[in-house]
Every structure is written in structure tokens, then in C-alpha cells.
DNA sequence: CGAGACGTTGCTACG
DNA sequence: GCGTAGCAACGTCTC
């Protein structure tokens, strides 16, 4: 038989899937995304055709896990099992992500902190358990998946390769390589959308080719959410022989080379689908809490019992299906007379995730300032000293530092704490590149998610989505508002545990006598503040104003010379930040610019097409 | 085209 | 303790 393959789109069990399908003798079945009724018909024909093909052979499916580390609501798994003689469930451990980097500022690889590596290992273990309960197991291999997967396709005589669609550029490059190899071998590739609720490409198409950049317009575009599919088949056929493939055991952290971990406190959130489902049930148990949830009202300093669900790491790895979460929420809302609404509600939180996935999928260079059509060009400082202080929790602002220590130890912070430290590093105080802070989050957060992380850093640095740069979080009063006693600070910064509450957020203002009594001399045991916030924040606002003006003047594409000139101009106005305790006075002058204006939307459209 | 409303989560002062 | 006004003032969307 002569096979060739084409890309097409067809619905499977009402889920829209992007798949590669077999076609016989180039009889491609092309299905336009517009008409659902013809979909169904053609789906039927397609399936019939497939059955005709497959009935002549024993189907071996390879189910490639990357994210989507779950058995519930997993369309790739269902597809792999469909009529298959054998299913090979594979995960490839990529040393690029896992090998210890001793030069890194905290334990972990160069890309991933040890908390997230542990979370992944736990998730894999749980996935293996789930598969074993169905007569299968997780097959682990080590190396570069783009070479390993094609080898396995040959070795195992695979006819069908299934994996969840992934929007990240890194994943796209990886998956395209594997797809290409698979198609050359005549292997059918099925890549359903199940990491997000909605199909980002579909939303972009509905919006006319570019992603919606406001939450409201995004919400208007999305239709009804697809519902989860059922649980995994109760039996998944595992072959007895692996034809010499180099399978490895699930490594421990120790095996990976993380053997001298002397950290005194680890993340309290273990990975895995079982944990995710338990956590989901616990979160949804209190129906009043669910229907009254309003994100901005949460307490970022609550750490014994966090103010949010902390389901984000489970969504990140796909231990929990976003569709399932969404459906469960809707059920609970439907039983209540009143319930909060997006953007602040729990449903709203899931939609934010969708929003950023869509924005990131349709925006070139989404993770950079330069070459990113939606990102304001701002002359951020490239100051590694300031960056180090921030990352290490040594800025001298206890609220900021405690949050950064929580990030390092737990791999998690409350959303508002993330706001506070991100604002502080960028437009609020230190004026350091948002990409630098993004990298730190990306490595350390157990829920670190490429689309959401980059989107939020642009948001917080007022580089995109959000532009009210004069609204700056105070590193002195923001934490105090929620936790006047400073319990959060005392927990994560034990050096300050005996500092009286009156000084806990501004310990440098404590009289020396008080500092002595608290056994914490500022400048010796705990750093002096790196900037005078009242001065620094005003300078930042000025810089933002000038940068916005230049951005507008140059239609979002200032030349390097423009940026340099602006930097020079601004540097003259910056005060010394070294000894901020000796509060300097500001001298400011308002230089007015004559700026030409032009429509932003058309500009963005132009820039978008420039990069295509 | 221009005006006005609005935007997930700012701050301080004041009643 | 909580809600509100004033602060200064961005871009986007709608009418």
C-alpha cells in the first residue's frame, strides 16, 4: 500500500484536533474549519478509511508524553489506544533540562530549578502508577527526543504517533522535526489540542489573523468551551518486547546529580495527576469559596494556607486538564444564584491562561523586547548587580526579599507577590530588563509557563497589555496591608524574626538600640535598602514617560541610536542609588516633547506583518 | 475624527 | 476596618 500524509483538521469526539492523517493515493481529505455538519460527515468517512487501512495490520502506537502528564481527559492517549495492538507510552528525559549546572545561582540545571525537576519526577512516577493500574507502564528514555522518537518509530514499527499539541516555540521546533521524520516513515501523527481549553489558532483566525490583545476582546471571541473526554481505557496493551531500546529507570534527584541539597525547606506542592485531582476536589469542596473567589482580594502573604488553589503547577505539566477544571467550575456556578465573573473569578483565571497562550502563539518574539511587535521599546538597565540582589533576596526591602526567598525555596509565590517583585525589578524601582526577571521566574517557578510568564512580565513592566506605569506597588506598604505583623517576612527571612512589627517592613528606620535587641544590625546582618523607593519610583515614571514618547514617535521601532540617546539623557537625571538610606532629594525637570501621534492599531498590524 | 469610558489587583488621605 | 476621592494620566475601544 502506498501512503502519503497531509495536514488537515477534523473533530474527534467533538474536540477539535490538529492532526496528520493518512490518505491513500493522495486522496487528501481537506476539511475547512468553518462548517461543523460537513465535519461530522467527513470525519466519518475519514475514520472508515482509517479502519480499512488499519484492519490489515497490527497497529503499534507511540504515545509521546511531554506535558499532559495525565490519564484523564487525554485525547492523545485515546487516539493511541484506538484499535491498537500495542501502545508504547514514552517519556524522554532530556539532559538539556535536567543536568545539574553547578554555576547556577541555586540548585538545579541551567534551565530548571530543583523544585520543578522534583515536581516532574513525581509526576512521572504517578503517571507510571496510573499506567500500571491499566496493565501498562511508562517507558523512559534518555537523550534528545528529536533523535530518540524517530529511532523508536522504526525500532517498534510504529504506525501511529500521538502527542499533545504544544504552542511554545521550543516545542514547535522540536515537534516539527519529529513530525517530519514520522511522515517520512509513513507514520500517522495525531496532535490534539488538550493543554488549553480553546484552540489558539482558531481564536487568532476569528480575530482576523492577529491575537486579541485585550482580555475583553478575547472573551468575546471564544465560544463555548469543549468538554473533557472520558477517562483512559481500563486496559492499555503493552508489548512484551522493546527490541533492544535503551529504557531507563525513573531517576531520583540523587541519580541526576543533585546530592548535596542542604536546603532546609522544599516546595510543599508534590507533583502528579493523583495529587492534582485531590487538590482539585479540595479546592472545589468549599462551594462558597469558589463562587465568591476574587483574585485581587487574595492575601499574597498567606503561606500556611495559600489564598489561591495552587493548581497552576498541575496545569503547567498537564497533571490536571484545564477543560476538566473549567467544566467543574461551571457546574458549581450553575448551582449558585450568584457567582463572581471573569476576569477576577476562578473561571477568569483559567481564561487568563488561555488569553496568554493565544497572545503568545500569534506574536513573533513574544519572549523578547526587540523584534516583538506588541512590546514597548524601553531603555531598561542591564545591571547584573541589581539583578543579583533582587534574585538573592538582598534588596533590603523585607517584603520583596521574603517573596524572592519563597520563590527559591518553594518554587511558588502568590500572584500578587509576583506582581510586587516584578514591578520592583522593572518599572517600579530598579528599571532592569524584564527579560532578566522573566528568566529567574522561568527557572525557579514550579508552575513556570512560557506563555503566561512572558505575558505577565510584559504586563507588569508596562511593556504590553497594561500601560498605567504610574501605578507602582510600594515595597514598603503593599505587604504591610495584608500582614501588619510581618509573619510572612519573619518566616522566609528568619534574620528579621525578632524585629518589632513597627519596623519589619522598613528595618533600616529602626533605632540602633532596637536593631541590637533584635539581633539584626541593618547593613551587617540584613542589607540596607538598595534604593530610596520614593526617589527611584519617581525616576522610573519619568523614564517610562520618555520611553513611551520615543516609542510613539518612532512608531514602536526606535533605532538603537534612539534608545542609546534616551539612555544617556536619562542617566544624567538618575541619582546615585548606592546609599539610598541617606535619602537624596529629587531634582526634576519636565522636558516636554513634541510627539506626533498615529493610530496604534494600524501600527501594530503593520509590525505584525513585518515579522511574518 | 474626537470625546469619553474603561482597564483583573496603586497610593495616600480622609470620613 | 472599610469604602471613597483625589492623585496623575497610560493605551484601547466604542460611540
Description:
- There is one protein chain.
- The protein is of the alpha/beta class and 612 residues long.
- The protein folds into four domains: 3-58, no CATH class; 60-222, HUPs (Rossmann fold, 3-Layer(aba) Sandwich), CATH 3.40.50.620; 273-355, Serine Threonine Protein Phosphatase 5, Tetratricopeptide repeat; 384-584, DNA Cyclobutane Dipyrimidine Photolyase, subunit A, domain 3 (Orthogonal Bundle), CATH 1.10.579.10.
- Helix content is 44%, strand content 8%.
- The protein has 25 helices and seven strands.
- It has helices spanning 36-54, 75-81, 95-98, 114-132, 145-155, 169-184, 200-206, 215-221, 253-256, 273-285, 287-292, 312-316, 322-334, 346-361, 384-392, 398-410, 415-428, 434-444, 450-460, 478-482, 487-492, 512-517, 533-553, 560-571, 600-611; strands spanning 3-12, 15-24, 60-65, 86-93, 139-142, 160-162, 188-192.
- It has a seven-stranded mixed sheet, sandwiched between helices.
- Strand 6, helix 6 (169-184) and strand 7 form a beta-alpha-beta unit.
- Helix 5 (145-155) packs parallel to helix 6 (169-184), helix 18 runs antiparallel to helix 19 (450-460) and helix 23 (533-553) runs antiparallel to helix 24.
- The protein starts with a strand and ends with a helix.
- Mean pLDDT is 87; it is low at 1-36 and 575-601.
- The structure holds a DNA duplex (15 and 15 nucleotides).
CATH topology of the largest domain: DNA Cyclobutane Dipyrimidine Photolyase, subunit A, domain 3
CATH C-level class of the largest domain is Mainly Alpha
Could you tell me how far the N terminus lies from the C terminus, measured between alpha carbons in angstroms? 39 Å
The share of residues in extended strands comes to 5-15%
Number of alpha- plus pi-helical segments: 25
Q: What strand order characterises the main sheet?
A: 1-2-7-6-3-4-5
Classify the secondary structure makeup into a structural class: alpha/beta
Low-confidence spans: 1-36, 575-601
Shape: globular
How many domains? The number is 4
- CATH level-four homologous superfamily name of the largest domain: DNA Cyclobutane Dipyrimidine Photolyase, subunit A, domain 3
Gyration radius over CA: 26 Å
Number of strands: 7
**Overall pLDDT confidence:** 87
Helix amount, in percent?
40-55%
Per CATH, the architecture of the largest domain is Orthogonal Bundle
How would you sum up the major sheet?
Answer: 7 strands, mixed
Amino acid at each position: 500500500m502506498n501512503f502519503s500524509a497531509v495536514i488537515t483538521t477534523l473533530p474527534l469526539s467533538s474536540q477539535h484536533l490538529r492532526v496528520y492523517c493518512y490518505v491513500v493515493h493522495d486522496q487528501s481529505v481537506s476539511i475547512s474549519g468553518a462548517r461543523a455538519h460537513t465535519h461530522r460527515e467527513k470525519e466519518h468517512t475519514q475514520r472508515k478509511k482509517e479502519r480499512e487501512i488499519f484492519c490489515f495490520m497490527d497497529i503499534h502506537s507511540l504515545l509521546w508524553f511531554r506535558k499532559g502528564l495525565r490519564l484523564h481527559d487525554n485525547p492523545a492517549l485515546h487516539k493511541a489506544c484506538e484499535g491498537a495492538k500495542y501502545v508504547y507510552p514514552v517519556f524522554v528525559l532530556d539532559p538539556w533540562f535536567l543536568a545539574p549546572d553547578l554555576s547556577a545561582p541555586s540548585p538545579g540545571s541551567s534551565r530548571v530549578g530543583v523544585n520543578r525537576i522534583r515536581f516532574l519526577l513525581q509526576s512521572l512516577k504517578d503517571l507510571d502508577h496510573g499506567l500500571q493500574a491499566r496493565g501498562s507502564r511508562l517507558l523512559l528514555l534518555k537523550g534528545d527526543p528529536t533523535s530518540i522518537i524517530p529511532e523508536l518509530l522504526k525500532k517498534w514499527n510504529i504506525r501511529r504517533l500521538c502527542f499533545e499539541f504544544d504552542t511554545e516555540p521550543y516545542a514547535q521546533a522540536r515537534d516539527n522535526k519529529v513530525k517530519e521524520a514520522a511522515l517520512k516513515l509513513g507514520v500517522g501523527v495525531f496532535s490534539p489540542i488538550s493543554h488549553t481549553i480553546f484552540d489558539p489558532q482558531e481564536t487568532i483566525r476569528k480575530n482576523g489573523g492577529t491575537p486579541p490583545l485585550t482580555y475583553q476582546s478575547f472573551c468575546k471571541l471564544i465560544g463555548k468551551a469543549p468538554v473533557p473526554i472520558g477517562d483512559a481505557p481500563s486496559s492499555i496493551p503493552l508489548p512484551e518486547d522493546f527490541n533492544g531500546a535503551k529504557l531507563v529507570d525513573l531517576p531520583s534527584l540523587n541519580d541526576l546529580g543533585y546530592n548535596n541539597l542542604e536546603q532546609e525547606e522544599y516546595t510543599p506542592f508534590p507533583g502528579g495527576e493523583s495529587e492534582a485531582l485531590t487538590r482539585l476536589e479540595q479546592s472545589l469542596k468549599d462551594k462558597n469559596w469558589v463562587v465568591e473567589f476574587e483574585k485581587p482580594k487574595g492575601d499574597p502573604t498567606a503561606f500556611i494556607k495559600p489564598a489561591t488553589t495552587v493548581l497552576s503547577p498541575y496545569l503547567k505539566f498537564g497533571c490536571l486538564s484545564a477543560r476538566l477544571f473549567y467544566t467543574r467550575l461551571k457546574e458549581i456556578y450553575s448551582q449558585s444564584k450568584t457567582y463572581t465573573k471573569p476576569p477576577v473569578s476562578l473561571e477568569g483565571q483559567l481564561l487568563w491562561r488561555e488569553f496568554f497562550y493565544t497572545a503568545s502563539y500569534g506574536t513573533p518574539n513574544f519572549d523578547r523586547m526587540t523584534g516583538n511587535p506588541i512590546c514597548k521599546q524601553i531603555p531598561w538597565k542591564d545591571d547584573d548587580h541589581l539583578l543579583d540582589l533582587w534574585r538573592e533576596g538582598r534588596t533590603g526591602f523585607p517584603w520583596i526579599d521574603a517573596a524572592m526567598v519563597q520563590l527559591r525555596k518553594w518554587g511558588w509565590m502568590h500572584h500578587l507577590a509576583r506582581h510586587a517583585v516584578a514591578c520592583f525589578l522593572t518599572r517600579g524601582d530598579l528599571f532592569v530588563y524584564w527579560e532578566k526577571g522573566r528568566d529567574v521566574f522561568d527557572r525557579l517557578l514550579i508552575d513556570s509557563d512560557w506563555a503566561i510568564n512572558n505575558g505577565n512580565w510584559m504586563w507588569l513592566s508596562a511593556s504590553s497589555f497594561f500601560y498605567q506605569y504610574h501605578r507602582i506597588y510600594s515595597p514598603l506598604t503593599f505587604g504591610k496591608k495584608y500582614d501588619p505583623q510581618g509573619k510572612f517576612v519573619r518566616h522566609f527571612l528568619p534574620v528579621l524574626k525578632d524585629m518589632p512589627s513597627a519596623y519589619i517592613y522598613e528595618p533600616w528606620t529602626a533605632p540602633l538600640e532596637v536593631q541590637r535587641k533584635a539581633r539584626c544590625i541593618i547593613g551587617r546582618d540584613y542589607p540596607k535598602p538598595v534604593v530610596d523607593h520614593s526617589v527611584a519610583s519617581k525616576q522610573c515614571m519619568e523614564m517610562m514617560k520618555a520611553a513611551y514618547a520615543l516609542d510613539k514617535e518612532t512608531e514602536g521601532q526606535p533605532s538603537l541610536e534612539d534608545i542609546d540617546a534616551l539612555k544617556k539623557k536619562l542617566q544624567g537625571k538618575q541619582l546615585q542609588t548606592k546609599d539610598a538610606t541617606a535619602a537624596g532629594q529629587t531634582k526634576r525637570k519636565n522636558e516636554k516633547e513634541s510627539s506626533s501621534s498615529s493610530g496604534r492599531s494600524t501600527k501594530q498590524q503593520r509590525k505584525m506583518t513585518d515579522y511574518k
